Every structure is written in structure tokens, then in C-alpha cells.
Amino acid sequence: MKMNKVTKNTIMLYIMNIAQLILPLVTLPYLTRVLTVDNYGVVNYVKSIMTYMQIIIEFGFILSATKDIVKAGNDKKIIGEITGNVILGKILLSMLSLIVLIIFTIFVPILRNNVAFTMLSFIPIFLSTFLIDFFFRGIEKMEVITIRYIVMKSISTLLTFLFVRGNGDLLMIPILDIIGNVVAILLVWKEVYKLGIKLSFGTIKDIWDSIADSFLYFISSMASTAFGALNTLLVGILLSSKEVAYWSLAMQILGAIQALYTPINNGIYPEMVKERKFSLIIKVIKIFMPVVFIGCLIILLFSKPILFVIGGRKYLEMSYLIKLLIPVIIFSFPAMLFGWPVLGAIDKVKETTTTTVVTTIVQVVGLIVLMLVGEFTLVNIALLRGGTEFILLTSRLYFINKFKFMFK
């Protein structure tokens, strides 16, 4: 029965992640054709900055609050308290992230030249506060998350085709995301009402405690962002707008592939928290790693046709970049799996965070060295990215071996 629940949750998250893969890829070829390379670079660059804002607002609650709700069992009062305090904490963190964004906008030219687009893009990130994914993950009702995502993104995708016709419609992109988010919020809270959960709010100390408890999860999430968003941030500052567009598209493709890993991790996380069965992890690796290798072989052999479908002829030149990122695709699946679903499930939060932080330091030092020696190129950044992902994987394997006695 429990395995059936894991399977159901994983399937529902897979449906969501397939939607996360398909819906952006539906609009991607359209946007790359109706927008110039420079403007498409702006869109993806701002999205990468919003990744930072999202991490500040989430602050690791997707893991810490999920675990708290799992441990609360069926106690609706405690679940309501956890949910209420997390929402208030996210609102406070939204104010902080807005300040950070304003500072970024002042100093980063590509943001300063597109202030309205940048600020409008922040609104959907703030609205995500009220989507409370952690709540539905904790009570293991992944279907709610899936349905609201599909509705939200389907609305914004359809409206994109209707209203975005060229560079002059750039501001419509975040506006349509806002509309989709509002509809999703209404659907989510309808489900909360049906479940009979009543929010309650603690004192400032309670809210602060919820933020403090999630701090290590946040550090890990923020550090892992350096693998993607920090690279894009520096590319936007140091390289041409064409290279920004190339790197942004490469990261979008990589993100779409890694999004396929996420439902596996999220689907087994609640079960690993309760059971700590390492045999489940072994099964997942045996099933999915061959699929990962087959996917990498397809990318290696057909990178140009794939890029032609996604971006058109003007992006064929970057096929080399997609091939260089194949090691990241291979290493990132087990690296993600061995993180929170494995080490996090046995309460090794500090160790999980340490692996991410140390790897991030290596990444940042590598980027600094590339800048100092005048070799800050897309090729070298991609190679560095693969190397740091390997370090993340091996460091997590070290801790799994060290604490293997804690698994069943």
C-alpha cells in the first residue's frame, strides 16, 4: 500500500514535470522566432535572476515544512499552524527579495534597461507564496500540485500565443504569468477549504523560528543555484547579448531535462522520511540511469536537429554547448537523488548543505579564475559546470557511505 502511494505521488509529479517540460517547449520555439536574439536573451536572463528571488522566498520551506507536516500526521491544528507561519515567513522574505532585486537592477545593465519587465516578472514569484506546495507534499496529495500547475501554465501558454507577437509585447509575458498564478491560487485554496484546514498564526517568534529551522535548507538551495543562475548572471555582465541568449537557452534545455528528475526525488522524499529504505533508492537508480544515458546519447547524436526544432536556424551554432553539458545531465540525477531524498531523510541536513556549499565554493572560485586569466568563455563555463557537478555527487556518496548504518 505504501509503495502504491509512493508510485501514485511520483506519477502525479511526473505528469506535472512533463507539463513543465512540454508547456515551456511549446512557447520556446514561438518566442525564439517572434523575439530578436537580444530580447529573448533579456527574457531568459530576467528569469534566471527570478530564480534567486524564488529561492529567497521559498527559503527551503519546500523541504523543512514538508517534513514538519509529515511528522504532524493527521493533526489539522498543527498543520494549520505550520502553514500559517510559513506563509507569513514567506511574505517577510518577499520584502527582502524585492530589496535584493532593486539592488540588482541598479547595478546590472540588462536589468536596468528593462526595469518594467523585471519588476513585473517579480509579481508571479511573490504570488507563489500562496501556492503552498509544501502543504500538499506533506499530506501527500501531489495531484493538487499537478492540477494547479497544468491549469496555471496552460493559461499563460495559450495567452502567450494570442498576445505576444513581437518585441513590443515583451511586458505581456510576465503579465500573462500573473493571470495564470491568480487562477492557480484560487484552485489551491478551494482544496484547502475542502480538507478542513484552518490557518492559524503564531507570534513573531514562532514565525522567526520557522525561518530559522529552514535556514540550512535555504543555504543548500541558494548554494545549488550558483550552478545555474550565477553563471547566467556573470554571462550577462561579461559577455555579449548573443552569448547570453545561447547560454540562457542551454540552461533552459538543461533545466527541462533536470525537471524530469524532480518528481522522482519529491515522490520518494516523504516515504524516505518515514521508512529510510535505501533499497528504494537502489531500485530508482537501476530503473532511471539507463534512461539518462540513452537521453544523453540522443543529445550527442542529434543536437542540431533538436536545436533547430526548439530555436530555429539562428541557434544551430550553439550545438557544441549542449554537447559539453552532457556530463552535467549524467551526474546531476544521482547527485540530486543522494541529497534530500537520501541524506535529508536521515536528518543529515548539515551534511547535505555542506556538500552543496563546498561545491558552490569550487564553482565560484573557478569562475573567478576564468575571469582573471581572461578565459571566461561559454566552453570553459560548461566544462567547469560538469566538474563541479561531479564533485557534488562524490561528496554526497562519501556521506552516504559514512552513515549507511542509519538506513534500513
Describe the structure in your own words.
With 408 residues, the protein is mainly alpha-helical. The chain has helices at 2-34, 37-58, 61-72, 76-107, 109-112, 115-127, 133-138, 142-163, 172-194, 204-213, 215-238, 241-259, 262-275, 278-311, 319-324, 326-337, 339-343, 349-372, 378-402. It is globular, with a radius of gyration of 21 Å. It starts with a helix and ends in a 6-residue tail after the last helix. The model has no long low-confidence stretch (mean pLDDT 86).
List the helices and strands and how they pair.
Layout: H1 2-34, H2 37-58, H3 61-72, H4 76-107, H5 109-112, H6 115-127, H7 133-138, H8 142-163, H9 172-194, H10 204-213, H11 215-238, H12 241-259, H13 262-275, H14 278-311, H15 319-324, H16 326-337, H17 339-343, H18 349-372, H19 378-402
The shape is globular
Specify the helix fraction band: over 70%
Distance between the termini: 18 Å
Would you tell me the structural class of the helices and strands? mainly alpha
Spans of at least 5 consecutive residues with low confidence: none
Number of strands: 0
What portion of residues belong to β-strands? under 5%
Radius of gyration: 21 Å
- State the helix count: 19
| SSE pattern | HHHHHHHHHHHHHHHHHHH
Main beta sheet: none
Mean pLDDT: 86
Structural key phrases:
globular; mainly alpha; 408 residues
In short:
With 408 residues, the chain is mainly α. It has helices at 2-34, 37-58, 61-72, 76-107, 109-112, 115-127, 133-138, 142-163, 172-194, 204-213, 215-238, 241-259, 262-275, 278-311, 319-324, 326-337, 339-343, 349-372, 378-402. Helix 4 (76-107) runs antiparallel to helix 6 (115-127), helix 4 (76-107) packs across helix 10 (204-213) and helix 11 packs antiparallel against helix 19 (378-402).
